[in-house]
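Q: Structure tokens for this one, please.
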Amino acid sequence: MVIHLDIFHCIHRFDAAVHTDHHPEYALFKSALSAAVFAYNREDMALLIKAIRGGSPNRYEGLSDSQIMARYVSKDDLKHFVRRVTVGAHETYVRVQNAVDCLKGAAGLDENGLSLFKDDDAIHQVWDGQQKHQECIQDPPGMNMYTITKHVTRNGVSLPFYVTSRGSNSLEGFHNFLPNAARNCRFGRGQLPSSFQLVLR
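A: Here is the predicted structure, written as tokens:
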């Protein structure tokens, strides 16, 4: 039996460092923490994009894959058709650190100048305490975390329908990350910082 820490519980511990969960950057921060652990399977995403493009080739011809993902890939699409893999403890550390550093600055302020975090010491204390758990929130090596329960045909493309063995809470924020954060970000020129960008593997 392999027992690992649920990513949801690890992420929830960061709440101790924030002013309030009503802060406008709170949801983005929690989604970024989820995205620090997981990456999308590149082949699954490419197959899904192919299926979406097949619905209206002329309409989507001028759009890049990134634009298709941001505009037309839904939360349910991600949940059922694209597997997620953990990125490794070191990469998770780098991504969380980047998210914390970014939101400690101007990107973490609301319209009244209130910071997402209570203060630097508060977020540093929480993050220092969670660093020891980076290994135990990764998927066990060699373990298949998904089962194919059926195939769904969309616009002539057969898509495997995946069910994960991970707890649903672990992935809740990550399912929302791509469709929502990219639309709602408040970072210059409408782009997320590099630490929050979608990663395919």
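A few notes: The first strand starts at residue 38 and ends at 40. The CA atoms of residues 38 and 86 lie 4 Å apart.
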